[in-house]
Design goal:
single chain, 11 strands, globular, mainly beta, four-stranded antiparallel beta sheet, 0% helix
């Protein structure tokens, strides 16, 4: 089972950008579709973005579409999430996930989850 570790969260001013990273422990990372989810206090987990193992296919949640980019570097066992023009609704703990093969990306059916990295947005 691949282990995942996120980084890159922190306090960000509204309107600014940040990039989250998720490093996997094993080379099998390159065989997984990868996704980012987020969960704010008192709210359910929300799908943010996903990318196929090859990087050729991506999917985004509507509220981040056009201002976010998911990417991956299989040589570095790393998936990234670039978020721009941050607003208060983006404040959450962000989790990366190695998705189960054949699963619908937005359902959160994953082989592994990271422990999360918190993003706080200041006005």
């Amino acid at each position: 089972q691949v282990r995942l570790k996120e980084s890159g969260g922190g306090l960000v001013q509204a309107g600014h950008s940040l990039r989250l990273s998720c490093v996997a422990s094993e080379r099998t990372f390159s065989s997984y579709a990868m996704a980012w989810f987020r969960q704010a206090p008192g709210r359910s987990r929300e799908f943010v973005a996903a990318m196929s193992w090859s990087g050729q296919t991506t999917e985004y949640e509507d509220s981040v579409k056009g201002r976010s980019t998911i990417s991956r570097d299989n040589a570095k066992n790393t998936v990234y999430l670039q978020l721009s023009n941050l607003n208060a609704d983006d404040a959450s703990t962000y989790y990366c996930a190695a998705l189960l093969p054949g699963s619908c990306w937005g359902t959160g059916l994953a082989s592994s989850w990271g422990q999360g990295t918190q993003v706080t947005v200041s006005s």
